[in-house]
Every structure is written in C-alpha cells, then in structure tokens.
Amino acid sequence: MPKGIPKKYTPEFKKQVMETMISEHWSYRETAKHFEINDHKRIIAWEGIYLEEGPEGFAVERRGRGSKGKPRKIPAKIEEDLLAEVQRLRAENEYLKNLQALVLEEERRQRKKRR
C-alpha cells in the first residue's frame, strides 16, 4: 500500500487483535508486529475503545473532525432523573411561593386587627 494512504481495518479484525493481545499478554509493539500494523499507537487507541465500549465500539465511524457545535447526547436514565428533579424543584418553588403569599396575607390581617 502506498505511503500516506491510511489502511482501513474491519471491526472484526480490530476485535481479533484486541482479544489476541489480551489473551496472549502481548505488548503493543508485539501485537503490531504480529498483525503487521505499522503503528503501535493505533493499537493503543483500539484498546481504549475496546475497554470503554466493548467490541461493538469498533463499528462506530470515528474518522474526521469531531462536532463541537452539538452537545453530546446524555444517557436516557440520566436525562429522566434530571427531568424528574426539575419537575420536583418547580413544584417546590411553587409551594414556597404560595406559602410566602399565605404568610404575608396572615401578617397583613394581623396588622389590620391591631388598628
């Protein structure tokens, strides 16, 4: 393959590389040499993906520049928890406003009785 043109590795190949490296207790360089991968740093990156996302993480396309404009999608469970907390805080806020209004109304009545 000509120099400068990146080689495309399949998700299955990456999975095989990671599983072999882990099972054989090979270093990054040993693994790169065995599988004829020019740069052992590529294997370091694959290991991060493998440990963080599992073998399914290799199917995700990661080429190109990352988007900086869109916020990252948060997990559904965390989103549900945050929405529930927002609703609870809104209800608490409304309750406290009503309580304050009642207290002020009671104080106003007490002042009127004194006069």
How would you characterize the overall build of this protein?
The protein is an all-alpha fold and 115 residues long. The protein folds into 2 domains: 11-59; 74-115. The protein has 4 helices and no strands. It has helices spanning 11-24, 28-35, 40-53, 76-114. Helix 2 (28-35) packs across helix 3 (40-53).
SSE map:
Layout: H1 11-24, H2 28-35, H3 40-53, H4 76-114
Helix pairs in contact: 1-3, 2-3
Q: What are the defining features of this structure?
A:
single chain; 115 residues; mainly alpha; 2 domains; 4 helices; rod-shaped
Distance between the termini: 98 Å
Number of domains: 2
Instruction: Assign the structural class, choosing from mainly alpha, mainly beta, alpha/beta, alpha+beta, or little secondary structure.
Output: mainly alpha
Taking the sheet with the most strands, its summary is:
none
